[in-house]
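Inverse folding, one chain.
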């Protein structure tokens, strides 16, 4: 990802997109995690929830990567001012 070749408008658009995607991802993963924990506690047959709880835990690794990309874009935008 070469940020120096992109226009300022494109960088701002990417930053907004990353913020939106990251917010939605955090929301969906939080909801899925809460549903899984509820299923583990409340349901007698919780094998499905045991298997499903791996999904939000594994996909949480995407969030720091997105924050790192957002930080790089913000830094590039600050350098252009």
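Residues assigned per position:
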């Amino acid at each position: 990802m070469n940020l120096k070749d992109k226009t300022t408008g494109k960088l701002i658009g990417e930053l907004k997109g990353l913020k939106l995607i990251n917010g939605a991802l955090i929301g969906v993963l939080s909801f899925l995690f809460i549903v899984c924990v509820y299923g583990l506690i409340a349901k007698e047959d919780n094998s499905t929830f045991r298997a499903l709880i791996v999904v939000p835990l594994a996909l949480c690794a995407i969030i720091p990567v997105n924050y790192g990309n957002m930080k790089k874009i913000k830094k590039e935008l600050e350098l252009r001012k």
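Residues 27-80 form one domain. The mean pLDDT is 94.
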